[in-house]
Amino acid sequence: MKVGIIGFGYWGANLVRNFANLAGAELKRVVDNRSERQKYLANLCPSAVFSTDPDDILLDPEIDAVVIATPVFTHYELAKRALTNGKHVLVEKPMVSRISEAHELMELSRSSGKVLMVDHTYLYTGAVQKMKQLIDSGQIGNIKYFDSTRINLGIFQPDVNVLWDLATHDISILNFIIGNEPKSVQATGISHTNNGIENIAYLTVNYGNGFIAHFNCSWSSPVKIRMMLIGGDKKMIVFNDLEPTEKVKVYDTGYEHKTDEEKKNILVDYRAGDIYIPKLDTREALSLMAAEFRDAVTTGKRPLSDGVSGMKVIEILEAAQHSIKNKGIEVDIRRNS
Predict the structure, then answer these.
(1) Which one of 66, 160, 169, 284 counts the least CB within 10 Å of its CB?
(2) On the CB side of 38, how many CA atoms lie within 13 Å of its CA?
């Protein structure tokens, strides 16, 4: 599989490193509009050719697959052109900036028979894979809530708000480990830069079956927090991505409630048990994602983070954007998509 990578910034460099060392793949060319990046590429992957024109990849008949690691607003046009020119496509998250664009790329992928995959790297981490196993095995019980905090003093993006930048990670995790289809969303946020791009936002995803998901995202926090809480009626999970080793902890903690008919009160019994720290796969998630893209291209295997996965994230983000701009109204995702 001969690969071309468009975009050689921070994440693009990680992709170059992984595809340069991926068995069964040859990194042929890297494109970036900053010509000074050529020296860095020469050190990182001397065999790859550098250029500043995406057409050098998109129109090269020898290149089988295109990896897109550019700003969000460029994803749709680059992915569309790649698919139209018979290339398999791996695009950085979020896949596109509109659900209509996602649908069009999905249809192009189907009609051309080419792979469309999104780089939701977190799905390949040992932590997320372990949480999925715990939930699917029934050890956690019926899942009641999903609560995510992803905040830091971060880079204010010029083209997307904080939900599109940060919540994308955790929405992809939510969709992967929970599996249920959401009903509606409500979101609020604020821009402190007077450009209409929210740097703090809160998103609630409603499911209508006793399960709720909530996201707290900010580029304006004095501390960096990457924390996820998942509560079941048997046990609860804490995922702290900043922990160097013990990222996932399972708490044998819960509660039961009943109604006192006489006093019309809710009586709650609490249970606090042991804490279990499972062993996690420590392989680099990005290398596993790159390998799955290779396998999808060469064997036809359906990837975990396929176009459908990317599209479902966009459905929630676009509905959230509509809610924010309309003072937090509840937006039906099914109608919005």
Answers:
(1) 284
(2) 9
Domain of residue 44 covers 2-120
160 and 281 share one domain: yes
Residue 40's nearest CA partner among 58, 20, 65, 22 is: 20
- Number of compact structural domains in the chain: 2
The 10s digit of each residue's pLDDT in 153-170 is: 988 888 889 999 999 999
DSSP string, 222-269: EEEEEEEEEEESS-EEEEETTSSS--EEEEEEEEEEEEETTTTEEEEE
232-270, pLDDT tens digit by residue?
Answer: 999 999 999 999 999 999 999 766 666 655 555 666 666
Half-sphere exposure of 152 (CA within 13 A, CB side): 12
Distance CA 155, CA 221 (A): 11
The one-character DSSP state at 306 is B
Tell me how far CA of residue 60 lies from CA of 28, 222, 262, in angstroms.
10, 46, 78
Residues 129 and 246 occupy one common structural domain: yes
* pTM for the full predicted model: 0.91
DSSP labels for 70-105? S-HHHHHHHHHHHHHTT-EEEEESS--SSHHHHHHH
Contacts 24+ apart (CB under 8 A), 206-209: 206/182, 206/330, 207/180, 207/181, 207/182, 207/183, 208/183, 208/184, 209/180
CA angle 157, 291, 105 (to 5 degrees): 55
